[in-house]
Amino acid sequence: MKDLRRYLVLKYIQYLVLSSSNAISTFLGLLGSLYTITILQSAKVSSKSTAVLILSLAKADILVSVSVVSEMVVWTFDVGISSTAFTSALLQNLLTANAHISCLLLSCVAFEAYLITFFPTESRHLRTVKNARLTSRIIWILVTAECALFQTDDLLKASSTSAPAHSPCILLFHFSSTAAALLRSLSYFLGILLRIVNVYIYYKIFFSISNR
């Protein structure tokens, strides 16, 4: 449990404290996620809702691994890519998806800690493995849809320059561009809100434990 707490602290710093990830935090995050996946898939660890959420959080770093490995392969072997703009956008969208999944799952872990601290008995029927898996699945589906929209928008931006002014591609471009812009704004404000909520939750938990 101490190792999992350290891992959560690392992830909170990486996604909810730092304004943007750097090479050091990304490397430490990947190592921590690999270690956490190994621990949580061990038969010695009991399956609880918190463990399910943390495991899903660790698996989200697979998206970072794909992006980092792809960039290393291109840089090391000087691989020629037919659609550089498309690939660059895809790798960036994978990092964005990882950040959004991680922030949402960290917030779920914080909310569960709040329930355990203040409503341990009343919330027992909510803090189940089934609900944790369902929550993780919903988060992954929503963020995957967001990533697909962002990627579609980037693809249409790249192809809109060569399309006629009144073609269906242009109309689709305007629709996806508006939807992507709204979603990016919503994600930005949601990220700020999640930071505030997480600080408030752990502030309440800290002083509650101190008073005891």
From TrEMBL:
Location of the protein in the cell: Cell membrane
Pfam families hit by this protein: 7tm_1
Protein's GO biological process: neuropeptide signaling pathway
Keyword Ribosomal protein listed: no
Protein name: CXCR3 protein
Gene name, Swiss-Prot/TrEMBL: Cxcr3
Originating organism: Fregata magnificens (Magnificent frigatebird)
Membrane-spanning ranges: 12-40, 97-119, 181-203
GO terms under cellular component: plasma membrane
Keywords: Cell membrane, G-protein coupled receptor, Membrane, Receptor, Transducer, Transmembrane, Transmembrane helix
Primary site of residence: membrane
Classification of source organism: Eukaryota, Metazoa, Chordata, Craniata, Vertebrata
Membrane disposition: Multi-pass membrane protein
Residues in G-protein coupled receptors family 1 profile domain copies: 32-212
GO MF annotations in UniProt: G protein-coupled peptide receptor activity
InterPro entries: GPCR_Rhodpsn, GPCR_Rhodpsn_7TM
Transmembrane helix as UniProt keyword: yes
